[in-house]
Design brief:
The chain is an alpha/beta fold. It has a domain of about 120 residues: 3-Layer(aba) Sandwich (Rossmann fold), CATH 3.40.50. The strands form three sheets. Strands 7-3-8-9-10 form a five-stranded mixed sheet, with helices on one face. The protein is built from four helices and ten strands, in the order αβββαββαβββββα.
């Protein structure tokens, strides 16, 4: 079943003229914000159903969400965006940052979970990324911090502009998470 699901974008592309879109490389900030001693584990993002689709979701002028059958994510959106968040956090923080399951024997100092309520926009328009992230201590299971986020970025042209907006919004979230982890003001 898993092989079939992962092969779906390639199969769909082979059957038609669908294009595959990659998330862009992480835009590195001017410097690291601090350290996450003991490590940070990043759970898979929880995305709305429309954002889980392999077709690039776009918000139309009428407010309807459409899935573009000719524009597909090159990877599953959940995996692509979770991996992008990890790379963005690695660019902002020093210390071990990895996806779950945590690869080391000793547990990380913190675990971050991201619950996305809204992740949508149209080409050449505002792209909205909103939800909540939670920092948890794996040792105690207690919530260390929980914050809501609402990020708006401008999307570029076409499906690649929407995919790029997804990535830039995730990078802005990485700024907020890094600030919270290091005790800097969020903003």
């Amino acid at each position: 079943m898993r092989r079939t699901f992962l092969a779906l974008p390639l199969l769909l592309a082979a059957c038609g003229s669908a294009d595959l879109y990659l998330t862009p490389p992480v835009e590195a900030p001017g410097g690291r914000m601090g350290s996450v001693g003991g490590g940070l584990a990043v759970a898979d993002m929880s995305l709305p159903t429309y954002a889980e689709a392999v077709e690039v979701a776009q918000l139309g002028p009428s407010g309807a969400v459409t899935l573009d059958k000719n524009a597909l994510w090159a990877d599953t959106p959940r995996r692509a965006l979770t991996r992008h968040l990890i790379a963005a956090l690695q660019a902002r923080l020093s210390g071990q940052i990895s996806s779950e399951p945590w690869p080391a024997f000793d547990p990380p100092a913190l675990r971050v979970e991201v619950f996305v309520d809204r992740m949508i926009g149209g080409p050449e328009g505002p792209f909205t990324f909103a939800g909540q992230y939670v920092l948890v201590s794996p040792q105690s299971g207690r919530i260390v911090s929980t914050d809501r986020f609402a990020i708006t970025v401008q999307a570029g042209a076409g499906p690649q502009g929407v995919v790029d907006a997804n990535a830039r919004a995730v990078e802005a979230l990485a700024d907020q998470i890094a600030a919270r982890v290091t005790g800097r003001p969020i903003g």
